[in-house]
Write a structure and sequence with these properties.
Number of helices: 5
Helix content: over 70%
Shape: elongated
Distance between the termini: 16 Å
Structural class: mainly alpha
Radius of gyration: 15 Å
Length: 79
């Protein structure tokens, strides 16, 4: 149960990163002015390439963010 919750939390936080094609990019798009939307749509054409590149380059910081989210979640729910 602990491991399943941990994996689920990591995936949820990861999905909220504002990088296309993740859902966080859709949230960011809804917060930005309409004038930015054509730029974001063009960016989405290269989403998978940029996504893989960012994961490769920023692997350490992404892992730190996910570790932090896991600590906060389990500290809050399991004290």
């Amino acid at each position: 149960s602990f491991y399943a919750s941990s994996i689920n939390l990591v995936l949820a936080v990861f999905n909220l990163l504002p990088i296309p094609p993740l859902d966080g990019s859709k949230i960011l798009q809804s917060l930005l002015p309409l004038s930015w939307h054509p730029f974001l749509w063009r960016l989405e054409q290269y989403a998978w390439l940029s996504f893989l590149l960012l994961l490769t380059v920023l692997r350490g910081p992404v892992q730190e963010v996910l570790r932090w989210a896991r600590r906060v979640f389990f500290g809050f729910f399991f004290g």
